[in-house]
Amino acid sequence: MIDAVGNPQSLLLLGGTSDIALATAEKYAAQRPLRIVLAARESERLDAAAERLRKTGSTVVTVPFEARKIETHAEVIDKAFAEGDIDITLVAFGVQGDNEQGWTDVETAREMAEVNYVAPMTLGVRLAEKLRKQGHGHLVVMSSPAAERARRSNFVYGSSKAGLDTFFSGLTYALDGSGVKVTVVRPNYVHTKLTEGIKPAPMAQQPEQVAEVIVDAVRKGKEQVWAPAQMRWVMTVLRHLPRVIFRRLPF
Length: 251
Hints:
Largest sheet: 7 strands, parallel
Helix content: 40-55%
Keywords: Oxidoreductase
Distance between the termini: 44 Å
Pfam families: adh_short
CATH architecture: 3-Layer(aba) Sandwich
Strand content: 15-25%
Number of helices: 9
Family: Belongs to the short-chain dehydrogenases/reductases (SDR) family.
Number of domains: 1
Number of strands: 7
InterPro entries: NAD(P)-bd_dom_sf, SDR_fam
Radius of gyration: 18 Å
GO molecular function: oxidoreductase activity
Low-confidence stretches: none
Order of helices and strands: EHEHEHEHHEHEHEHH
């Protein structure tokens, strides 16, 4: 169970090599050792992530996970919950993709849709069932400001994140009264492996800064948060700009 000050006893990281997910786990583990499940592709990166978190004194197990293999997700979730209840689940996997390929190549578009939307949605259905049965838990999902209004340079990615964002925002209503909470996190550009090679945007964040936002949001029971917080007001303005003006902006 999550204690009175928002600290969990157990974590499930779907996308267990994510820089943001690992930074979040370390922030929680700084308060007390945890039981952590890392679900990700089998790789040296996954082994290194597990070893990194074991240094916090936490117990860490790994579960092989492929986002696009939807037929395996039930087994992944069952394995993750095999040792007991999960207090916080962080859905932190995704692909940035090449936007120009995304709207001209079917396979690229399909990969972005399956990884960024279809897989999180189907996992969300299974996780909601598990968490409702245990009667508690907090589900955190990584979205993007692009889900609110995508630019010319990222509209394929943005469309996939918009689907994810809408589903999990709706899940906050559906799970009301069940003891289960949902938080949708919309971080601005973050310096991670996912964004390597992409020009940083203004107000770029480090994984540790986003992790702080996540920890605070779970503690306060917030359903939506932006990182940094100022992005909320930036997106409020951008959402309401007329199309003729928005399409002329230099990004």
